[in-house]
């Protein structure tokens, strides 16, 4: 009954949006022109203010009903952090605070990134089946041979509520997303196809393609200005914990960006490892040597095995 009510509510939202959009015209041209403006900004061909970027993204987001995906309890998350001074790998952290996300008191260290503005700390990690998926993490932080990496292993202690950037782009291509999601999302996509006129449907799909593209494109400051703004719009809802997005460097691997307060409330840190990457074979394949490891207590203090 609950699932049926959810479907009815979502389909009604889609119908209402469809009815409103059908009163207007030229949706494909509108969407295409906005995307061209944003791409020209990213490529350095035109200038846009933060307000201008926000307004253009806001128009694109309105074309699709945004749906949330639950990440179940006990899902493993991996996060890698390089040592600030690679020659001092024995100067170990005693608490996970810096390895998890940049603490509020040093938020000035948070640089503009794919899903955060300057001075806006966020948790970046990968959804993993086991610690063997650490290669994805090493690739994401552009780890080099002989560098020492802090590898934080965590699990969700409560269900996370996230939004998947580029989810419908998989269905448009006739493929499946890299993590298992409820069949309802495929039903939603099929409902769009069966109820929307071709021109409007193409406009909506163009929005999906653009969002998927900019979240996987090689990063630049201008690109990050757009994607960080997109992230902030999608995360305005206090009920949303974060975003899922595909890895830029490891195909079909799901990454996660979470709000710090969601990490504090819904993620349990379990272990920390110090790894030295002795060999980079390419294609996100590394040989890593374990230098030390420790477990994390309820206060997020790390109990290292070796002195």
Task: Say how many strands there are.
Answer: 10
Tally of domains:
1
Overall structural class, as computed from helix and strand content, comes to: alpha+beta
Indicate the mean pLDDT: 90
Rounded to the nearest angstrom, the distance between the terminal CA atoms is: 56 Å
**Amount of beta strand:** 15-25%
Tell me the series of helices and strands, N- to C-terminal.
Answer: HHHEEHEHEEHHHHEEHEEE
Q: What count of helical segments does DSSP give? A: 10
Low-confidence stretches: none
Q: For the report, how would you describe the main beta sheet?
A: 10 strands, mixed
Outline type: globular
| Sheet with most strands: strand arrangement | 1-5-6-7-3-2-4-8-9-10
Percent helix, as a range, is: 25-40%
Instruction: Report Rg.
Output: 21 Å
Protein model, in words:
It is a single chain. The chain is α+β, with helices and mostly antiparallel strands and 307 residues long. A hairpin with a 7-residue loop joins β6 (242-246) and β7 (254-258). The protein contains ten helices and ten strands. It has one domain. It is globular, with a radius of gyration of 21 Å.
How would you concisely characterize the structure shown here?
This protein has about 300 residues and is α+β, with helices and mostly antiparallel strands. It contains ten helices and ten strands.
Topology:
Blueprint: H1 2-22, H2 27-42, H3 50-61, E1 68-71, E2 76-82, H4 97-100, E3 123-128, H5 134-140, E4 148-156, E5 160-164, H6 167-172, H7 184-195, H8 198-216, H9 221-234, E6 242-246, E7 254-258, H10 260-266, E8 267-282, E9 285-296, E10 302-304
Helix pairs in contact: 1-7, 2-3, 2-8, 3-9
């Amino acid at each position: 009954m609950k699932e049926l009510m959810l479907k009815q509510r979502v389909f009604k939202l889609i119908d209402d949006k469809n009815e409103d959009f059908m009163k207007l015209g030229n949706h494909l041209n509108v969407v295409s022109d906005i995307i061209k403006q944003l791409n020209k900004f990213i490529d350095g061909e035109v200038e846009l203010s933060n307000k201008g970027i926000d307004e253009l993204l806001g128009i694109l987001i309105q074309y699709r009903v945004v749906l949330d995906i639950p990440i179940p309890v006990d899902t493993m998350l991996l996060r890698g952090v390089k040592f600030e001074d690679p020659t001092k790998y024995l100067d170990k952290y005693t608490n996970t605070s810096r390895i998890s996300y940049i603490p509020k008191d040093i938020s000035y260290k948070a640089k503009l990134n794919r899903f955060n503005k300057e001075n806006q700390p966020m948790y970046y990690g990968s959804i993993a089946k086991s610690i063997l998926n650490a290669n994805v993490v090493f690739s994401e932080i552009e780890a080099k041979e002989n560098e020492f990496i802090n590898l934080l292993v965590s699990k969700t202690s409560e269900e996370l509520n996230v939004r998947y950037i580029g989810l419908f782009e998989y269905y448009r291509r006739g493929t499946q997303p890299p993590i298992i999601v409820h069949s309802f999302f495929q039903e939603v996509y099929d409902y769009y196809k069966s109820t929307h006129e071709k021109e409007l449907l193409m406009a909506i799909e163009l929005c999906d393609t653009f969002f998927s593209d900019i979240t996987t494109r090689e990063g630049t400051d201008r690109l990050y200005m757009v994607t960080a703004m997109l992230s902030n719009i999608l995360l305005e809802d206090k009920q949303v914990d974060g975003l899922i997005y595909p890895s830029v460097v490891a195909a079909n691997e799901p990454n996660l960006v979470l709000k710090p307060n969601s990490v504090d409330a819904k993620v349990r840190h379990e272990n920390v490892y110090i790894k030295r990457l002795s060999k980079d074979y390419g294609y996100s394949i590394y040989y890593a040597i374990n230098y030390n490891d420790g477990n994390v207590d309820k206060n997020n203090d790390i109990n290292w095995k070796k002195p």
